[in-house]
User: Fold this.
Amino acid sequence: MRNFRHILFFTKWIIFSSIFSISCGDSEPISDKEDTGNDDNQGGTPVVVVNPVTNLEAKETEIANELQVTWTNPKDQKLIRVELIYQLKNEETDNKEYSQQVKATPGSKGSLLLKLPVYGTYEISAVAIDNYGRRSEETTITATPSETGLILDWNTLADKCTSVLIEQFMDKGKGTFWKSPKDISGGSFNIYWQQAHAMDVVIYSYERIKEKNPDLANTYKKYFELWFKNKANNYHHDSNDETGFLNPFTDDMCWICLTMIHLSEATGDDTYINMAKKIYDQHIITRVWTDDEGTGLPWKTDSNDRNACTNAPGCLVAAKLYKKFRTENYIKDAKTLYN
Assistant:
C-alpha cells in the first residue's frame, strides 16, 4: 500500500512538472515583428499605411500672389482626398495656417490654385487621406509667388489682336468683314451692323500707330476707303438709296454712322462724317415718333418698338454731329433721345 502511494505521488509529480514546463515555456520568445507586424500595434492587426503624394510642385502664375500647386496622388484604392496646408514662412510674425481639401482619384494628377493673402515665401504641405480618415505623412515644399504678376505690353497685344482680326476676318479686297474666319461658314452677305464694330477696332489701331508706323497706317487708310466704297457690306440695296447705307433697321444705320464719324475724327477726312450727317438728317431722325411714353427712334421701319440699341447710338450720333457742326437741333435731338 505504501508503495502504491509512492508510485501515485511520483506519477502526479511528473504530470505537474510537464504542465509547468509547457505553461512557463522552455523555447525562445516570439519576436515583436513576428507577433504584430508593427512595433506600434501590439494587438496583432497590421497597421494600414496611407502612402504620401509625390511630385509636389508649386509654380507662380501670371497673377500676383498666386501659386499653381500640382502633385501625383498615391495609388491607394481607398484614397478620397488630399489636404493642402500652407503658411507664410516668416519667423518674425505669428502667421496663420491655411488649409484646403480637394477630391482625389488614386494614381491621378492633382492640382489646386492657391490665392495667397500676401506676398512671401510659403511652406506648403500635402497629406493624402483615405475614406477612414487615415492620413499619410506630409510632403512639404516651399514656394514664392510672383509679387507683381505678369506685366503685359498692351500695345503689342493690341497689335496682335488687330492683325488676327484683319488676316482672318477681313475681305481685304472690299475692306469689309466676314462672320467667320475666311468666311468658312458662308452667309456673310447680311453682316452689316457688325461692320461698324469690327472697323472701329482697326480705327483705334490706326490712331495708336499712325505716327510710329506710317506704312501700316496707310494700309489701314486703304481699308477705310474700301469699306466706305463698298457701303460697309450693306445687304439692303434700294434703287432709291442715294447713300448706299440705308437699312430698314434704324440701329444698323446708327452704328454705321458712328463709325463713319470716328473715321473722320481719326483721319481728318470729312467725307465720312458728311455722309453720316446726310444719313442722320434725311433717314434716321425723320423716323422719330412720339406717343404717351415720349419721343424716340423705332427699331425698324415697320415697327414702332423702341429699344436701347437704337436710341443709345442715335443719341451719340446727334451729340457728335453737334460737336462737329454746332447746330442746335443736334444737341436738342441728343437730349430727346437720351430721355
About this structure: The chain is about 40% helix and 20% strand. The radius of gyration is 41 Å. Residues 154-338 form a domain with the Glycosyltransferase fold (CATH 1.50.10.20).
